[in-house]
Every structure is written in structure tokens, then in C-alpha cells.
Design a protein that fits this description.
This protein has about 110 residues and is mainly α. The protein has a domain of about 60 residues. Helices cover about 50% and strands about 0% of the residues. The protein contains four helices and no strands.
Length: about 110
């Protein structure tokens, strides 16, 4: 039994976001982005393409050995089959390439 107070007012099973796969609610064209006039420089900041410094610091200086191992295992478990989901042959070829790369890397270390 559903009490009227707990009943949804509209669209009992539709998600309240758009776009969605149910084609329920639509974006209202009159409620677009607000526009504002700007003159001159709004903001200046330094920019570089270094996307690896922060993760490197986190991995090497913040995490302990056990935490690193858990992070590595979690990433591996999340990604191990994702390329095969695209196409089994694609996943197998990339897996072979990674295995070959690892084998070459190990053989170079032996010398």
C-alpha cells in the first residue's frame, strides 16, 4: 500500500535527469546557460601538460607498500578484461603485445 503522501507527484518510474534512456523529462529550451558580458582578462593561470606528477607523488610518497599492492590489484582487476569486451580478438592481440613487451623488458635486464 502506498500512502498518497509518499506517492511521486509526476512520472512514477522515470528518472529525473535528462538525457536518459527512458525519454522521459526533456530539457526546457528557455532555461539555457546564463550569458554574461566580460571584457578583458577573466583569469590567468599557469598551465602545463604534466598529468603524472600528482599521481606519482601519491603513489611513491603517500601510499605504504600494502596500499600500493591493493591499488595495483584493484586497477588490474578493473581493467583485465575491458579490452576483450570491445572485441575478443582485439583483447587477445593487446594481451600478447603486453606479454611480449614484458618479456623483452625482462630479457634486457638480464644483461
Amino acid at each position: 500500500m502506498q500512502l498518497p503522501i509518499n506517492c511521486p507527484y509526476r512520472s512514477p518510474d522515470a528518472p529525473n535527469y535528462y538525457p536518459n534512456s527512458f525519454n522521459g523529462h526533456k530539457e526546457c529550451p528557455c532555461s539555457g546557460e546564463s550569458k554574461f558580458h566580460v571584457t578583458g582578462d577573466v583569469d590567468r593561470h599557469e598551465f602545463d601538460d604534466d598529468h603524472f606528477e600528482q599521481p606519482r607523488i601519491f603513489y611513491t610518497k603517500v601510499l605504504e607498500d600494502e596500499e600500493r599492492a591493493r591499488l595495483e590489484e584493484n586497477i588490474f582487476n578493473s581493467m583485465k578484461d575491458c579490452l576483450a569486451e570491445v572485441d575478443a580478438g582485439f583483447g587477445n592481440r593487446l594481451r600478447k603485445m603486453i606479454d611480449n613487451y614484458r618479456a623483452e623488458k625482462v630479457s634486457y635486464r638480464d644483461f
